[in-house]
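Bug report (template v2)

What were you trying to do?
Predict the complex of my protein with fe (ii) ion.

What happened?
Run completed; filing so the output is reviewed.

Input:
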Amino acid sequence: MASERLKLVIMSDLHLVPEGEVSNTLDTAARLAAAVDSVNINHADADLCILAGDLADLGEADAYVRLRDIIAPLTADTHLMLGNHDDRRVFLQVFGNGFADQNGHVQKVIDIKGHRVILLDSSEPGVVEGVLCPSRLDWLQARLDEARDRPVIVVLHHHALALSMPVDTIILRDSAALLAVLCTHPDVRQVIAGHVHLTTTGVWKGVPFTTLAGGHYNVSVNLPSHAAPQDRLEGPGQYAVVLADDDACVVHFENFLDRHTVIAANNFGRQRASRR
Ligand SMILES: [Fe+2]
């Protein structure tokens, strides 16, 4: 019998700051509050809400306390992850050591609706790039081996698939090792990251990799062929919505700040007679 459809909301790159401060001119607390409202209004049926790292801009305790207050109204079961802007020690002081596994990493698996969701900690204190040390790769391998009978969705902060963008200078260092482990599982449906402040999707040796723009600023697409330098943009303010069942996994990107003008329904009546 087909399993129920799984719905995940993934936020990333919240970059919260203490009260009275802004981050790169942006009021990241107000942006997160808007995201929370949007999720509660539009995705009250979400099974999980995952915050995929860079929770605090500079890892300050006040920012984590503020984070805890702002996400308190989320009705979905909410899980926190760390990114390169976070401070693991301060985070654990505020949220409790129960968030860390026996090796001190903030990671876990969640088995739900026929899937295994793996939250993988790619943060490394003092390092901007992502790191997956041997103990984390071993942990991932073991968690994948346990779930060979079901689809897996992996969430981590750092992007693993190179994007041909300036942000590749701070990519996950151990991306080839990650791919090798992932390729041992027969059914990895998505590997979803934040970090790059850009929406992308791609496939690497058959494994699908996705990044979401997240709640902080967004960067313009800047490939080596672009004439102008990369811009940093104030929007869109984005979270991802993942819909997954036995057969398929779809990722939507919902922009909760940038809203374009709605084209009224009566502007959609122009058709050729042969197409009516
Ligand atoms: Fe990051």
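What did the reviewer find?
The two ends are 39 Å apart (CA to CA). The chain has a mean pLDDT of 96.
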